Structures are given as structure tokens and as C-alpha cells.
Amino acid sequence: MPRAVKFSRYGGTEVLEIAEVERPSPGKGEILVRTVVAPINPGEIGIREGVFADFWPAAFPEGQGNDFAGWVAETGDGVSGFAVGDEVIGYAPRAAQADYVVLPATVAARKPAGIAWEQAAPLSAVGVTAWAAVNAVAPAAGETVVVSAAAGGVGVLAAQLAVLRGARVIGTAGRQNSDFLRSIGVVPVLHGEGLSSRIREVAPNGVDAFIDTFGSGNVDVAIALGVQPRRINTIADGRAVARHDVRHQAQEQAFTPELVEKLASLVEQGLLSVPIARVYPLEEVRAAYDELGKRHTRGKIVLSLVADSERHTPLR
Fold first, then answer.
1. Which of 304, 238, 279 minimizes the C-alpha distance to 43?
2. How many angstroms separate the Cα of 102 from the Cα of each of 3, 57, 123, 170, 193?
3. Element containing residue 189 per DSSP (H, E)
4. Which pTM was predicted?
5. Measured in whole angstroms, how far is the alpha carbon of residue 313 from the centre of its chain?
6. Which long-range contacts (CB under 8 A, 24 or more apart) does 241-250 make?
7. Residue 140: how many CA atoms within 13 Å on its side-chain side?
């Protein structure tokens, strides 16, 4: 039987279960994808714990996961752009952590054969979010941009995209990520108390833009540094958006399959790297979220749903 991650009440990782489900069928204009990998994201923890229940209530038993990559296993009526066996990158809210996912063909992106499944799957979520955040603050060549949590899932991509625009990028992170950030062209600065002073030390001429991917007062730091609110974007601090009238551009405002394919092309060309912290089998989904919840991950944690020996054999 096909499997899917489900939870039937709000709570910690103990509420997550691997359920046996019926294989879904695609309707008109839809495709059925056999999932190969599905990343996990911090926002999914809040949904499962009920933090966002007033805005996005669960329909128990609720599915989990948003972004994924896999093969087209079946096409519905009226689909002409995809065929069985095509490799795709998808986005399916609260449904991605499952052996089979149905989604409209119009929102699926083509995965280049030259990039790994793990590198491709996060692009429809953190990749698009990073692109939106960078676009929101519009860094020009030679400007100085700060990216908070610059080794995290969104931050590491936002930092690289800003570097590609010619900006000087300062990335906040733990000490263990300093060498890594330097390797991708980012100036590392230790996060935590005294952050604004440390940023001033490496940016004596000031900061032009600030991308916050972590919250925890980073927007206040940006304001203290003299960054104009229109050049600040946060994806993690809604209260700061209301308090300072800063920007809040993320995946929802930017997603298109064409953008996902553009990001995938940058990865294929070696211009953008998607660091993978660890790959867990689907059966260890609880352990995967326990690790993510510590919020010290470099890059992405990904769930694998297909054995290594089967990854290069499209289902026919």
C-alpha cells in the first residue's frame, strides 16, 4: 500500500504516523507523481503543533509537507505537457510527504536530469522564498546586504542569490558555519547578543539591505543599523512587519513553475548550491523533525521515499 505521513491531533513529533493510503488518481488537468524525495520545513512544525490553527486549521487526519520531486506516474485527461516517466519538481501543501502526490500539471516544474533529487526538491519552497526575499530588497552590485541565518535552508540560497547580483553579503550564523559561508562568498558574523556592533565592524560604511529568515529580533537589528524599512524583508517575524512596515515577500508571492525551473537551471550550471544536511528515510520522519527543531541545520533535511537502486528507473 502507498504510504503518507499523517497526524490526527496537534502535538510534537510523537503525533506523526506513517499511514497506509489508497493510491490517488489524477483528475482532469492533473498529474500523479511518484515521490522520490520530500524536504521538511520549519513552518510545518508550527502547523503540526497548532501554532497556526486560527489561520490554517488542520483537517484531521492531516497530511504533511509541501515541496517534493519525483516521476510522473500517471496523467489525467487533458494533460499534454507531461508524460509518464518525466522528472518533475512539485509543490503540494500538506500532501508532499507521501509515495504518490496529485497536483495540477500547470504548477509542476521540470527537473533537469543533471541535478540530484535532493537538490531539486527544495527549490519550489525555500528556493522560491529566497528569490522573493532577494527581489524584495533589490540589492544592486556593490551594495552591502545582511542575511540572517545565512546557513539555513532559505538563508543559504538568499545569500548566494544576492552574491550573484554582485552584492557584498554578510551572513549571520553560528561559529561552526563561518568557513562554509566564506566558501560561498559570504562574510560570516556570529549571531546573538551584540550582533549590530559586529555587523558595524565588518560594514563600517553601513548596510543597504537586510533579509531576515529567522526572526528573534533581526528586524530590530536592521532598523538600528539604519536600513530603510523598504529594504528590509522578513519571512519569520510578522509582528515586526506590522511594527516597522517592513516587507514580507516569500514563496506565496513569487511561486511559478517557470521560476522553479530557472532556479534549477542555476543549480545545474553550478551557480547555485543547495546544501543537504541529511537525508532520512520516510520511516524516520519523527527523527528528521526532531533534528530540524533544534534550528542548527546547515541547508536542508530531506526525506527519501524511494530506494537508491530505484532512483534512476522511471515508473512506466
1. 238
2. 14, 21, 18, 40, 46
3. strand 187-190
4. 0.95
5. 27
6. 243/219, 244/219, 246/219, 246/222, 247/136, 247/137, 249/132, 249/133, 249/135, 249/136, 250/129, 250/132, 250/133
7. 2
Residues forming a β-bridge with 89: 69, 109
pLDDT value of position 146? 98
Cα–Cα nearest to 210, from 232, 189, 243 = 232
Cell readout for 163 is 552574491
Ranges under pLDDT 50 in the chain: 316
> Which three-class secondary structure state does DSSP give residue 57?
coil
pLDDT for residue 168: 98
- Class of residue 160 by CB neighbours under 10 A (exposed 0-12, middle 13-18, buried 19+): buried
Nine-digit cell string for 53? 490553527
Using CA atoms, how far residue 60 sits from 7, 63, 202, in Å, is 7, 8, 50
Question: Would you state the cell numbers that stand for residue 35, as one nine-digit string?
Answer: 515521490
5, 20 in Cβ contact below 8 A?
no
Q: How far apart are CA 210 and CA 151, in angstroms?
A: 15
Residue 248 bridge partners (DSSP): none
